[in-house]
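Q: Sequence in, structure out?
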Amino acid sequence: MRKYLVIILLVCISLISQSQESGDFRIGVYTQLNSYRGNEMPMSGVSGEFFIDHNFSLNYKYGLGRNNSGDYTMHFNPSIFGLLYVNSVELFILSFMIPEGISYHAYPKQGIELAPYINPLGSEFNFYENPNVVLSCSFGINIHLKPTENLSVSPNLGGMIFYRNGELIPSMGISLNYNIQGFR
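A: Exactly. Output:
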């Protein structure tokens, strides 16, 4: 029995040492398909996660794509609307620091990280024909496959709900991420 406890302890310690810590930042590029009323709407962009703890990160995401009419659409954090009223560099920087949501990170096996997320502070520009800006909440799970300590390829499955009418938009995608250590 004691032998098994030692093995479990060693496995847990090795998993912890192979993962993010408070202050780490993961930046990535992503592409995804949103399924909207029978049409696929592609979107690509940049994403970021700032780890506030070993198991929790703050999420940031900005993207550009095409809507059903072929026009450009954009996903962004509505906090950037504050830029319209900013009269100082400090407030400008602060508006980009407001996260879109939060993720929980579990490490079931070395090289694999499961990260369910909820992002209640999202918005979509030009997704619908009218109005131009719609507030949204996205949720889902990222499966980070980590061939190295700092690199991950992450399939994603999730959805987005528009606050305006409660409409659910399924999505799936993939991202390539790099973990930057040292913001501790």
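The helical segments are 2-17, 89-97.
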